Structure formats: C-alpha cells, structure tokens
C-alpha cells in the first residue's frame, strides 16, 4: 500500500497483483480468534497518512485483526489505493528480458505484462508452513492454519482440539479456542515466554501526545522499532541485582514488549543477561501428551 502511494506520487503507472481476494496482507489472511498486534496500535499506522491520529482512533491499546483490517481499508479508500490493485491473482513467474529492458511477469489469471521495475511486496510471513507431521494423512478431523483461517467463525463447541505451536499465534488463539472446546491439548516443541499485555483503553497521556502528534511521529521515525523510546546505554550487570529486579518488575507490570527488549543493552545479546530477566517469571512447563 505504501509502495502504491509513493509510486503514484512519483508519477509511475503500475499494476499490483495480490493473491488474496482483498487487501490487507497479513491482516487479510490471519483471521484466527485472538489475532492482534503486539506493539501498540497507535504505533502500527502508515506514516504517509499525515492525518492518521485525527482520522483513526483505536478503541484499545493492542488492536485486533478486524480493527486493523478496517483501518487498512480506511487508508486505502482515503488515498484511492485500490485503483491499481488486482485481487485473487498470484504472480507465478517473473524474469528479466533483455529485449524489453524490463521484466516479463505472468499470473495465474492469465495476465502477461512487461514492466521496467518489479517490486516484491510479498511479505516476510506470508507463506504458511506445510503440515509435515508423519501420518497426518490418517487424521480425519478438520485442520485449520492460523494464517489461512476461514472468513466465517469456526465453532469448536463440544470438540476435542489440538493446537500445534506456542508462538504468538498459538498464545493468542489458545485461550479463546479453549473457552469453546470440550477439550484442548497444546503440543509444544519449544517453550517461549510471553509478557502480559495489560490491554485496555489507551492511556490518557498517550492520547494527549497524539493530539498534535508531529513531535511523537518524528521521534518514532528515528527510533529503534518505530515506537518512540529512548535507547538504553546500560548493560545489565553494571547495576545491582535489586535494581535489575525493580526494572524487570516495572516492565512486567506495564507489559510493553519494546520496553522489555530495551531494558538493558545486552538483554537480547548476552545469554547471562537474558537469563537474568527470564527465569524469575517463566512458569511455562511443557506438558507431554
Ligand atoms: C499474526 C501476526 C501478527 C503480527 N503482528 C505484528 C505487530 O504487532 N507488529 C509488527 O510490526 N509486525 C507484525 N507482524 C508482521 C507483519 O507481517 C508485518 O507487520 C506486515 O503486515 C507485513 O506487511 P507486508 O506488506 O510486508 O507483507 P504482508 O502483509 O504479508 O503482505 C504480502 C502480500 O503479498 C501477497 N503475495 C505473496 N506472494 C504473492 C504472489 N506470488 N502473487 C501475488 N500476491 C502475493 C500475499 O497474499 C500477501 O497479501 C505480524 C504478523 C503476523 C502473521
């Protein structure tokens, strides 16, 4: 969507092919129960849309998939971005052609086009992992992939459900599926840990910052991950164990993912610093079935 916006500004003509039947990418495909962003919604917005804080209000800190999809559609409509998009069309082949001095592109819809530039906005997480469990062909029940969830809600009432994986999608969907299912078993290869989200309404001080958001957005632009946050310069073991525990506790209580990654310079690179944060809280014991 951003590429479409910028290329139009640059006066380029373009065709955009999308395999899905509508726009949204990640947020079009991932419709599983509980799907949400893991950074605050106010920070997960298009920077090219200058009036975003005025025109869009997230009802809660961490937006759900349906809200994000609504937001993306609102931005597309506002900037007339659907104009060049062709949905339900997968690019199957693209190669450079010297005679054309450009690419020849084919789609499964039968399009054959030539173009000078080819932008692969195909996503970093858009291909689901295949089912590669020996014997799975003998399973006669229903199989769902979080990243290819049906558009209609799936009713698990009275069913026995197995969830494979405890990454973000597993963690988000397990409690909601468990609330419906007769029984739910989680298959976990590698335990991971998760911090509490403390989701809820957006804090008043954050809303105040967004009233005139130019300073906030400028800080985001030069930040570590698009969220204004002063980078720490303190290594974990340069402070006392008591001080570390207090900071861990504060971050845990606030539930800000990026704050956790930014607690100490080496929390993500030094295993000792990482372990110092982790074992005080993890109660994630694998259960083998
Ligand atoms: C469940 C989930 C939660 C996430 N939460 C966050 C978050 O909180 N914060 C964050 O920063 N990131 C998050 N991400 C990462 C997310 O993928 C990116 O933030 C962002 O949406 C990626 O956008 P994209 O346009 O690069 O790719 P995508 O949104 O993946 O879009 C790529 C599109 O290309 C299409 N495509 C692929 N191949 C072809 C082809 N051959 N022909 C035609 N079309 C094709 C796909 O159908 C897809 O629609 C999350 C990802 C997932 C899966």
From TrEMBL:
Main EC class the enzyme belongs to: oxidoreductase
One Pfam family it belongs to: NAD_binding_8
Lineage top rank: taxon: Bacteria
Family matches, as SUPFAM superfamilies: FAD/NAD(P)-binding domain
Cofactor(s) in the UniProt record: FAD
Keyword Protease: no
Keywords annotated in UniProt: FAD, Flavoprotein, Monooxygenase, NADP, Oxidoreductase
GO molecular function: phenylacetone monooxygenase activity
Protein name: Phenylacetone monooxygenase
């Amino acid at each position: 969507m951003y590429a479409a916006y910028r290329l139009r500004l640059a006066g380029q003509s373009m065709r955009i092919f999308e395999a899905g039947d509508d726009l949204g990418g990640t947020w079009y495909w991932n419709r599983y129960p509980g799907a949400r962003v893991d950074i605050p919604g106010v920070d997960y917005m298009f920077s090219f849309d200058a009036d975003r804080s005025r025109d869009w209000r997230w009802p809660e800190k961490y937006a759900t998939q349906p809200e994000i999809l609504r937001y993306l559609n609102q931005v597309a409509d506002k900037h007339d971005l659907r104009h060049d998009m062709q949905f339900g069309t997968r690019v199957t082949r693209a190669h450079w052609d010297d005679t054309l001095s450009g690419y020849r592109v084919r789609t499964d819809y039968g399009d054959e086009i030539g173009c000078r530039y080819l932008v692969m906005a195909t996503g970093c997480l858009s291909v689901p992992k295949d089912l590669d469990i020996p014997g799975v062909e003998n399973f006669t029940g229903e199989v769902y992939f979080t990243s290819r969830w049906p558009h209609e809600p799936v009713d698990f009432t009275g069913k026995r459900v197995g969830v494979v994986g405890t990454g973000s999608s597993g963690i988000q969907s397990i409690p909601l599926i468990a609330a419906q299912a007769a029984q739910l078993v989680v298959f976990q290869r590698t335990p991971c840990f998760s911090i509490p989200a403390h989701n809820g309404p957006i804090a008043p001080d954050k809303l105040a910052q967004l009233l005139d958001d130019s300073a906030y957005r400028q800080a985001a632009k030069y930040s570590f991950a698009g969220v204004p946050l002063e980078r720490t310069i303190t290594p974990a073991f340069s402070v006392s164990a008591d001080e570390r525990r207090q900071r861990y506790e504060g971050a845990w209580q606030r539930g800000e993912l990026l704050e956790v990654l930014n607690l100490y310079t080496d929390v993500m690179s030094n295993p000792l610093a990482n372990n110092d944060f982790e074992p005080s809280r993890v109660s994630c014991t694998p259960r083998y079935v």
